[in-house]
Write a structure and sequence with these properties.
The chain is mainly beta. It has one helix and 13 strands. It has a domain of 182 residues. The two termini are 37 Å apart.
Length: 279
């Protein structure tokens, strides 16, 4: 289910398969073309929507890189002093009848320089208490989901939709630790990566209080083979005109990736907002 990307000590003399990031890009391009094709087909109550926004996330948790199962966990706040992640996010979704298909992309990037409070190892290299370490945690998160609304009431003062959501979250994670040295220890750098597609099962709901305002909520979770992913969000959509509007909300992630050479157990949360367009 999971494929790991080796770092640093890569052999360049061997023939290589297509890199995982290229495979993901090809998959996402196919999904986008599929959605655009569906949008040109006649469906009842069809609606193609595109969202472009800005997401702020604050990190909590631990990361580790192991060698032969041995390694040390570093706290992303206390030891590594990672800053918040800020960046653009996007979503394209097709709604028709009781169904919804969507693709969401969110780049997550944390970096910081901290003083270690514990001894430990990362990818076989020793890090000691009081070492100054620069670190980066980057996760490209791809989210492909399908929702089916079991409740789809449009004959009430407020339209109510509630249903199940099946999704695949593809987390492409990279961790880098750089020991800055102290005059005695020579600076060195270690990196580790993992590509983890994690399916989730959850619920999605929407309440349209009026033609121009709606409340949206979703949550999904799955645990498999030592890895898990919890993704939950709530947002408000405001459309003063039918085809253009604004949205704002709050998102929470709880992610664990436990591979042979990489361990990430983190929680991210923060607000987001942006512009939406409907066709």
């Amino acid at each position: 289910m999971f494929g790991r990307v080796n770092s640093l000590n890569t052999s360049f003399g061997k023939e290589k398969a297509m890199p995982p990031k290229c495979k993901v890009t090809l998959l996402l391009t196919t999904v986008l073309l599929f959605l655009l094709t569906l949008s040109s087909t006649s469906f009842a109550d069809e609606l193609l929507s595109i969202k472009a926004g800005y997401q702020l996330l604050s990190p909590e948790g631990t990361i580790a890189g192991t060698s032969n199962g041995v390694g040390g966990k570093f706290d992303v706040r206390r030891d590594l002093d990672l800053d918040d992640s800020t960046g653009f996010t996007g979503e394209i979704a097709l709604n028709w009848g009781k169904s919804r298909i969507s693709f969401n992309y969110l780049p997550i990037s944390f970096s910081g320089t901290g003083t270690l409070k514990v001894d430990g190892t990362f990818n076989g290299k020793t890090f000691s208490i009081n070492d100054r370490v620069k670190s980066e945690l980057d996760i490209a998160l791809y989210d492909i989901s399908y929702s089916y609304f079991l409740v789809n009431l449009d004959d009430l003062p407020a339209r109510v939709q509630l249903g199940i959501e099946l999704a695949v979250k593809v987390a492409d994670a990279d961790v880098m630790l750089r020991n800055l040295g102290n005059g005695v220890i020579t600076p060195f750098e270690e990196t580790e990566s993992a590509l983890a597609p994690i399916p989730t099962v959850g619920v999605r709901g929407r309440v349209a209080l009026a033609d121009f305002i709606g409340l949206v909520g979703r949550a999904g979770y799955m645990e498999y083979d030592g890895n898990y992913f919890l993704d939950a969000e709530a947002q408000v959509e405001f459309s003063p005109i039918p085809t253009v509007g604004l949205y704002a909300g709050y998102r929470y992630f709880d992610l664990k990736i436990d591979e042979s050479d990489l361990f990430v157990e983190t929680q991210f949360s923060g607000p987001f907002g942006g512009l939406l367009v409907r066709f």
